[in-house]
Amino acid sequence: MRALEKAYGSTRALNGVDLTIPTGQVLGLLGPNGAGKTTTVRILTTLLRADSGEAWVAGHNVRTEPDAVRRAIGLSGQYAAVDENLTGFENLYLVGRLYGRKRAAARARARELLARFRLEEAADRPAKGYSGGMRRRLDLAGALVAEPSVVVLDEPTTGLDPGGRLDTWKVIKELVADGTTVLLTTQYLEEADHLADTIVVIDKGRVIASGTADELKAMIGGERLELVVASAADLPATRQVLREVGSGEPAGDDQARRVEILVDTGPKALIEALRRLDAQGITVQDVALHRPTLDDVFLSLTGHGAEFVDAHGEKR
């Protein structure tokens, strides 16, 4: 896609977005709520028309060849597209028939995917009795019925328990191993780090960075020094010490008495910080040195934190 723009009234959802996804790879699209991720997905899947710019999927222009694009893709959106009155098997069988598969082939593919997503025991129960996580898995299975060459996954693991998330990761890896191209939008930083060959970070409708996870982390350099002090009264002095040994403004959590900052010299900065704090009689209860995270990248690029979700499903 090239120079895509889309506005809703006075709000510019996309402002000249460029993306390229190499065949057989996963591109992770990261950004906070409202960054333009879902608008991008809707344009690429022909559900929405861009105001300007061009986009191609599997060699087909989304504006002039929408039917060909739809035949080439599988889509799992943020909300499970499941017919609650049909069983899990019937949902997948129906998708197979709509794609033109013969009855026997549609039945076999449905059963294969039900097993792949651990839904065999619930296969013949109406989907209205499924949990939210089961519906998400059934929806993702539906996106794979036609064995598409391009799969678009818009926050596919939202609402899944850790086991369901790991199962989904396994399926995505299998798809890529078979040559499928995947566009993945996610709020789970760990997910992007684990799955994506390339990550694109967007904010306010613009691409602000792209590269592998390691390349993005290398952009900001250094590591993150984190300290927990024994007394909240020592937080101001601790922040001042970290300003002197690190770069930028310290962050943290006053209630947890935690302060952190990016440092360029790693262990040397840690040792120097501890020496200065000890000289001031400040007791440190915990200390850690972390490699930069994708959250650090976002903070460095935009000047504000992103509302992402960690591995435990907690927003941060």
From TrEMBL:
Localization (cell): Cell membrane
Domain of life of the organism encoding this protein: Bacteria
Limits of the ABC transporter domain: 1-229
Entry-linked InterPro entries: AAA+_ATPase, ABC_transporter-like_ATP-bd, ABC_transporter-like_CS, ABC_transporter_ATP-binding, DrrA, DrrA1/2-like_C, P-loop_NTPase
GO cellular component: plasma membrane
Swiss-Prot/TrEMBL GO biological process terms: daunorubicin transport; doxorubicin transport; response to antibiotic
Alphabetized UniProt keyword annotations: Antibiotic resistance, ATP-binding, Cell membrane, Membrane, Nucleotide-binding, Translocase, Transport
One function term, GO molecular function aspect: ATP hydrolysis activity
Major localization class: membrane
A Pfam family: ABC_tran
Membrane topology note: Peripheral membrane protein
Similarity comment: family membership: Belongs to the ABC transporter superfamily. Drug exporter-1 (DrugE1) (TC 3.A.1.105) family.
PANTHER family according to UniProt: ABC TRANSPORTER ATP-BINDING PROTEIN, DOXORUBICIN RESISTANCE ATP-BINDING PROTEIN DRRA
Name assigned to this protein: Daunorubicin resistance protein DrrA family ABC transporter ATP-binding protein
Organism whose genome encodes this protein: Amycolatopsis taiwanensis
